[in-house]
Amino acid sequence: MIRFRPLPLMSIFAIVALAVLVSFGRWQWERYEQKTALADEPVPEMTIEDYQTLPEGLQFVYGVRQDVHQQGWRVFAPVQYGDTVVFVDSEFIEGARAPDPAEVRVPPALRLGAPISGASIRPEPPAPLTRAPRPLQRLWFAVDLSAMGRNAGLENVADYYIASAYMGADGRAVTNPFAMAPGADTLPPARHMGYAITWYGLALVLVVIYFAYHVSVGRLSLRPPRPPEA
């Protein structure tokens, strides 16, 4: 016969903590499943020619490159393409220090009028906990094309941007590491699975500690009751 007399306050805290750990684990597992599915979806590519650069409209979006493990700022250069303004994710400035717009020029490839090729991406709305932008410094912490366009005084801004190739340290073009399907990010799916296992593991440890403590103080017993003495 099992005898269990739970400690009220400890039980309340344990239930709340267990719910939090399980919810974190479920969230990370869902992210793992979403990213695994997104990895199988091709990102549409496009090429534009006969455009005009708009150097006064440069905007900067914070990002972390997992390929070089470096934080920095993505340079979003607007170009006039027919009647539409299209932002081009064209360069990456390393370092957490915010760039000075007066010191940043349009990347050379765009100044020369070379065709722009890359992934055509329609970004999702900024997440609720995203840091607030700093429009006066042209700094953004999520891609918000309409707001970036208004900040630059531009009209007819496309609802997509082109993630073109970056220029490597050796002067060669490298694949844009942010050229991913909407909803994806640079953290690989396996990392989310690892986080999910960690949260679920902590939940299991909490349950073990909870019951082990009750056993140690005599509030949980698996032994059958002693028969009454004659």
In short:
By secondary structure, this protein is α+β, with helices and mostly antiparallel strands. Helix content is 31%, strand content 26%. It has helices at 8-39, 108-111, 145-151, 189-216; strands at 3-4, 45-48, 52-53, 59-65, 70-81, 84-94, 116-121, 139-140, 157-164, 166-167, 173-174, 220-221.
Strand-helix topology:
Layout: E1 3-4, H1 8-39, E2 45-48, E3 52-53, E4 59-65, E5 70-81, E6 84-94, H2 108-111, E7 116-121, E8 139-140, H3 145-151, E9 157-164, E10 166-167, E11 173-174, H4 189-216, E12 220-221
Parallel strand pairs: 4-8, 6-9
Antiparallel strand pairs: 1-12, 2-7, 3-5, 4-5, 5-6, 7-9, 10-11
Helix pairs in contact: 1-4
Based on the model shown, name its key terms.
2 domains; about 230 residues; two-stranded antiparallel sheet; alpha+beta; 8-stranded mixed beta sheet
Can you tell me about this structure?
The chain is of the alpha+beta class. It has two domains: 3-37 and 189-221; 45-174, no CATH class. The protein is built from four helices and twelve strands, in the order E-H-E-E-E-E-E-H-E-E-H-E-E-E-H-E. It has helices spanning 8-39, 108-111, 145-151, 189-216, and strands at 3-4, 45-48, 52-53, 59-65, 70-81, 84-94, 116-121, 139-140, 157-164, 166-167, 173-174, 220-221. Strands 2, 3, 4, 5, 6, 7, 8 and 9 form an eight-stranded mixed sheet that branches. A hairpin with a 4-residue loop joins strand 4 (59-65) and strand 5. The longest helix has 32 residues, at 8-39. The radius of gyration is 27 Å and the shape is elongated.
Helix and strand succession? EHEEEEEHEEHEEEHE
- Return the average pLDDT rounded to an integer: 88
Low-confidence stretches are none
- Tally of domains: 2
